[in-house]
Structure formats: C-alpha cells, structure tokens
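Long-time lurker. I teach an intro course on protein structure, and each term I like to show students one example going from raw sequence to a predicted 3D structure in token notation. This year I'd like something fresh instead of my usual example. Would anyone be willing to generate the tokens for the chain below so I can use it in lecture? Attribution to the forum is fine with me.
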Amino acid sequence: MSYFLVLSKTHGETILSQYQRLREDHALCDIVLVAGGTEFPAHRTLLACSSDYFRSLFKDYTRESKAKLINLQVISSVGLQHILDFIYTSWLSVSPGTLEDTLEAASYLQVIEAIELCGQYITDNLSPENCCFFANVASRYGIRGALSAANRYIGSKLGELLRCAVDSTGLLELNSESFLEVLDSEEMPRVRELPLLTLVLQWLRSNKLSTVRSNLVLSKIRYGLIPAEELTNLYSTNSALQTPFIKGLILKALNYHSLGHQQPLVQSTQTTLRSRGTQILLTGGGTQAEGLVSEVLAFDPYFKKFRPLTELRSKVQSHCVCVVGNFLYVLGGEVLQVNENEKAVTTLVTNQVHRYDPRFNIWVETAGMIDRRAQFSCCVVDGKICAIGGRGGIESPLSSVEVYNIKTDKWQKARDLPQKMHGQASCVYKDTIFTSGGMFAQQRESSRDVYSFSMLEDQWKKRAAMSIARFGHQMATIKEKIYTFLGMYEPFCDIEKYDPVENQWTRLKPLLNDRFSYGMALVEDSVLLIGGKKWHNSQEVPTPSILEYDVDGDSWKELCRLPRPLYGMQCALMQLPEPLET
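-- Reply from a regular --
Happy to contribute to a lecture. Here you go:
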C-alpha cells in the first residue's frame, strides 16, 4: 500500500487570514484584552500559540484561564494593537514614534518574533538623526544584535555627529554601555581625540556616575593623542580628570610628549591613532614638468584615492624612508641647493634626517647621519635604523654602515660592507639584513652579488648570487621569501625569489614592460610598484601607472593611476588620521 505526504504552502496563511476575519467581525472571540482603557476582543487559542505569556496565563490552574476580560496595565493600547496585528497577520507596523510601545508590549507578552523584527528594523534604519535613540531603545530592551549595530554605526559616524548640535544628536543622552563601546572603537573616521574628550566630559556632567564608573569611561580616551597644552588646560579645570587613576594616565601622556626623539619607542594604545586602515605615503622624487616636488601624497590602496598630506622640509631624491612606531623617517638623498650669486641650482648629497608625526602633522629634524648618503638603502632591525652604503657625492661610493639609536638620538658606525657600493637594495628577514646588487666602486656595471648581515654576529656573509645583475632595484620580504624587482640600466623586466633557508634563487613571471625609479609598497600579500620611468626610444619616460604583483598567483595587473606621473619617490606604509574635510 502506497501513500503520498503532501505539504500545503498556503494552509498556514489561510488559517491566519480566517482568524483575522473572525477578529474583525468579533466572531467567536472568547477573551477581551484591555490596555490604556481600550478593549481588544481576541481568541485564546491563537494568543496562546503566539505568546509564551498567554500560554502560561491560560493554563487550567490559573485564575485568568476562566476570565472573560484581562486588564494589561503595563502596556499601552498602541503597543497592544501592533502586537495583536502581528499575531493575526504576521505583519508588524513599526515607526520611530511607535517603536518603544511596540517593544514594550512584545517584551511583556513574550512575542519573540516581534522583538526580533523590531531589532531588524533598528539595524536597517540607522541614521545620524536616530542612531543614539535606537541604541538606547535596543539597550533598554536587551536587543543585543541591534545594539551592537547601533554602537558600530555611532562610532563610524561620530565625526559627523560631533560637528552637529549635540542636543539634536542625542550623544549626551546615550546609554553608558553604548558610550563605552563607542569609546573603545579602533576606528573613528574624522574624529580627533581632543573633541572626543570634551564630549566625554560633557556626557559625564549629564550622567552622574560613581568615581569608579567615571574613571572607566575616561580611561578610554587616548591622552597621548591630545596636544600637551590643551591636555594641561583641561586637567586644571575638570575635577573628573583629577582622580588619581586618570591623573596617572594624563601624566604618562605628558611624559610621552616630552620624550621628543624617543617617542617611536614607547607606543601604546594611548598613542595609537583610531584608524585600522593603512595608507601609502609617497615621499620625494618629482615630475618631468616640475622637477623635484615637496608634496607628500597619501594613497589609499583599497579605495584607490590620493590626497595631499604634508610638505617635505626639502625637495629630495635618491633618499630612503622607513617607519618606526608609526613615525616616518626621511633620510639623506640629494637636495636642491640654490646659489643666489650665480643664480644656479645644484644638487647636494645630504646626511639630514627628518621625522614626521602623523598624529599632529608635524616634522622635526633628528640627528643627522655620520656620512652624507644618496642612492643607499636602509632597514629597521630591532627598533634601530640601519643606513647602508650609497654614495657621498657624484664619484664617492661608500662601504660604511651606520645605525641610528632612537633612544639616544645618535648614529654609530657598524661593520662596513665587503666593498664600496651604491644603488643596491636591502630588506630584513628574521632580524638579518639582506643586500643585493648595486654598483661597486671598482666596476662600471651592475652586480649580481647578495650579502647578509646579522648584528648579533657582526659580520657580512656572501650568499647565492641573483641570476640578473641589478641596480636601482627594490627588495621585499614576503611569506618567508625574499623578492627582488626590476632594475635601472638593464632592459629586463624580471623578478626573482630567494629562499634564505635553501640559499637559492628562482625566476618568476616578468613584468611586460621595464620600469625603474619607482616606489614600492607591500599591501597584505601584494606588491605595488608606483610610478617611475620606462625606457622608450632610448629616452626615460615617466609613467603614472600603479602595478600590482600578486605573490600567490605570480601575476601582474594595473591597479590604478597616479594623479600625475611621479618618479624617484620612496614609499612607506602608515596609519593616518582621516582628514576632517573630505
């Protein structure tokens, strides 16, 4: 004997629609609910199926199980109306004006699906005008998903909210849980810490908290990002900042500001910008039309956007850059020198070092290198900057290596290179410096040689040579391997990969066209070659293109283009505050 089991997709909806018709006709209603003086005829069976509250209420052993009228004094008539409409139709009508009444009724009557729909409504309809109100409602009724969404939204829009009138945004009325979560945000676009502290102090005056809770809120501020003078002024005029705990944080911040050249070594959450995304700084170099430029561009590789960030102290080329503690160091290179008497402009190799602080957009000059250097390489090892080789003038290649101790603001000589060289490239693999290529003093052609240097062993070791001689190229360490890219004089487009364990090089997929004098940056597992020049009819031609090399796929593609062709720049990856105006 066979049989079929068949599902009707419309039966449930039909039953509900029939219940709704009976309700509209007041037919077979066996209970009357009263809220706010308004009576609502209903059906016990449907209420019991839709609400845990009514299911318990209508059990045989309760007094209400036989009652014909139940007075619900806690909820409003508007809230009950919306919940009954939902029970009978599956449709929930929600607006900012009725949200609290609806949630109050849904929570009291334990209609879980209605609460979830209110949470979804909050999540889907967040705006600068309602986000604080929605966060407070979600907090009051314990809707965790909607509360988290509202808190994230407030953090992402806080810069916009702070620029509005506070009374209209509701920030001062924001519940303490949301306020703390917002202050914990690692990313706050276009928010500076000083106005954030001002908001916190205003919020504390509007929300009376215990000293312990007040300290917890104030501890979320990153005092190292507030200028010392403003921080001192606020401390002297606000008693909330004068508790022993917060005073300790402020004293640490003021001490940080007084450290000067040592600041990169003492980074902490208190001095870290609220910006997760990193951007690429394009420093130095120039254009064919203008020559050397002083403008530093910030490039967002994810959104492919450029913006002016700052100005170099001197127009420079053939220099080096590195980053320590999210501070940018610009070292040496060739700078322009103007002779007023002869009205001539010449280039001068310099030993100057300038440091840029993106927290306050300021430059300071640190101790200069012992030797003047151009076309050299630099690396950061164990928090120290190493300047390697290069040339001190047109015909003066160097073998010297020197190390900058940030703590003492002094340069010290290290073990010399095996021979004088310039135009080489360097990178760091497991605290060991690797240097490749370049041009040696006694030769007039590029080199294939590779050397490594360990500070612990204090000696240079020769490694397996590259398959191609290179000059003016770049190196990078990616996924336990070392890569060398392109070069200057030879018309080749190849890249190579080096395995430090096996001491072996492997040729990879070449670039379609040659390129030199470019900037290079590593973004996750991709390498970006930015701008530079190409050879065309024996002429050096600047290019605005930015190429991306996929390490895993061993493939090239054009990512985007520069605002104008740039060459000779050096690139660094840094966290930057977003501009206040977009």
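Some talking points for your students: The longest strand covers residues 305-311. The mean pLDDT is 90.
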